[in-house]
Each structure stands twice: as C-alpha cells, then as structure tokens.
Amino acid sequence: MTTRKTELMVGIFVILTIAATLLLALKVVNQGFSDTQSSYTLYAKFDNIGGLKTRSAVKVGGVTVGRVESIYLDPEDFNPIVVLSVSDSYQNFPDTSSVAILTSGLLGEQYIGFQPGFAFDDFVVLADGDFIQDTKSALVLEDLIGQFLFSRDSD
Amino acid sequence: MNWVIGLGASTLAKINGVGRAFLMLSGALIAVPQLKNVRLTIQQLYVVGVQSLLIIMVSGLFIGMVMALQGYTILVNYGAEGSLGPMVSLSLLRELGPVVTALLFAGRAGSALTAEIGLMKATEQLSSLEMMAVDPLRRVVAPRIWAGVIAMPMLALIFSAIGILGGHLVGVDWLGVDSGSYWSIMQATVEWDKDVVNGIIKSIVFAIVVTWIAIFKGYDAIPTSEGISLATTQTVVFSSLAVLGLDFVLTALMFGIN
User: How far apart are CA B113 and CA B109, in angstroms?
Assistant: First the structure.
C-alpha cells in the first residue's frame, strides 16, 4: 500500500512538472517568429547599423515579420550588410520597399523598420536572396550633435 | 621536509578520493538496466523529489514576490515597470531557478542522502548486502543517483514557474502593473532555446554534481558518528560551493559571448 501511495505522489510530482513546463512554454516564451518556421532571406546594405544585433526584429508597421539573421562587413566597400530572415507567411513585398534602422522608445533596442513600397501594375516582388536598395541608416546621436554644432558654426 | 611529505600525502589522498568517486559512479551506473531498479528509483524519487517539493515551491513563490517588489520600486522611477515581467522571468529561468533549487536540494536532500548511506555503512548494512551477493552500488547507490539527477531539473522548472506567478501576484495584483504588458513583454523577451533550455542544462549539471558529492560523501564516510557528521557537513559545503562556481562557468559559456 505504501508503494501505491509513493507512486501516486511521484505521479503528482510529474504532473506538476509538466504543468510548469506548459506554463513556461505557452505563457512565458516568445511564440512569435521562431526559427522552425520556413523563411526567406533578404539583404540590405547600410552605411551605419548603430546598435543593431543579430536576432533583432524586422517589423512592418509594428508587426514582427522576421529577424536579423546575421551582420557582416562587405569586404569591398566596407559597408555593413544585414541579412534579414523573413517569414514565408509574409510575401509579395514590392522591390520599391525600403528599410530603416529604428529605435523602439527613447532607450529601447533597435530594430529594422520595413516599409513596403507602392505596388504598381508591373511591380517586381522581392524574392529570396534579393538586395533591398532603399535603406536608411541608424541615427547615431554623436553624429547628430556633431552636425548640429557644425551647422551652427557655419551660420 | 615533513612539510613536503605532508603536502604529497594530502595530494595523493585527494587524488585517491577522486578515483574512488569515479569508481563508485561507474560501478553504479554502468550496468544492464533492471525493472526492479526502476521501482527503487521511483521510491527514491519520492524521497528526494516529492519531499523537497514544498520547500522548493514556497521558496520559489517568495523569491518571485521579492524580486517583483524590488524591481518595481526601481523600475517605476523610469516609467519602465512594464519590464518587470522580463526581469523576473529571465533572472528566474537563467540563474535563480537552477541555482537556488540546487542549493536547497543540497541542504534538503543531499544531506539526507549522505547521512542515510553513511549510517548504512557505519552499521555495516552495505557489507551485509555484499555478503548476500547483492551489489550495494546497484541496489543502494544507483537508484539514488538517478532519482537525484531526474528530480532536480523538474524541481527547478516548478521553482521558476511558481516564481513567475509570484511576481505576477505582487507586480500585477498588488502594485498595479498592467497584466497584459507583464505577459506580453515577457513573451517578447524570453526565448525557449536560449533561456529555458539553457536553464534546464544548468540544472542537470548541478543535479549530477550535487547528487554525486552527496552520495560519495556518504559512501566514503568514516564509519563513526563523527565521520557521518563530518561527511554531512562537507556535502552541504562542497556542493554549495561547486554549484556557485559552476554557475559562473556555465553562465559565461552560455550567455557571456554573443
């Protein structure tokens, strides 16, 4: 009889663990865009990426559609190239689309703001491996202050 | 000269101890699994796991509540009390869950394992088993090692989950942080493979270390009452130090370099 009771208590222990794991998996963990989902790759060349990191979000109008896959330096002109991995469920962006590096809030982390371009009749769709031509670099505060001071001096 | 002899002797004794610990582990674990031992493991799972459940759940609740309280008083100055969720959940999943569970486990279950096996040795129960052609490593040691290694990651998961609920209780229900932002910013920040799985890996490493130290200290104890008391003390001290030291190494490996 004691064995039955022991086994019952161990069973309850296991159920508690499963409940804890489910809570973590369903309520706590990021469920948005996961690596297991199929995705396609876009490239964008910037002058300055500021504080952008790998796994930063790619957002269209605030909706996360992908993540920054990797960042590396073009060996020829020394400009950073950002590799974006965009979920397959968001397709048919026109190739006139633009990307900008934005900051969420005053002190928040940086993300890629993706602005879909106008869809003309004969527009070309961005496909896997395409370069996005229209890019706006991150605002670097020190540069801004420098420009401000410079423009004041020249007045 | 005597000083050098003493140094050599103590070094040899330490290395001997490590060797005996590995012999015990291999003797206990390298064996054909038997159905009878599964039963014994479930029995031990009850002793080390279920009986530690209460202390783990209560500590988890209070640690989550205290972190929400402390975090709120600082974050509210910057209008960033929405970040309370990720603060509580990340510190629990990455650090406090595995570490505090391991420390409590060492105190609650590890010391009991050492004392139990040490007393078995002192009263020559282990020798009697051998006389009856029952291998004490297989019959006594192996189920306890397996039970410890299985139970601690489960306890750590329960600890983290309860802590997050405790943080919700204080942060949202008492201090008035918005419930939606508590969960949604948490979901945007916490990642399954990086945070939860790394916490579980940490917890498994701690489980192996703490159970191994506890059982070996009991198995290797000097079979007197002083010996058992010394072994029990050493179990708690050594495993706590090992957990805290290993935690730094594991954190540096997992989260140190991006």
Answer: 6
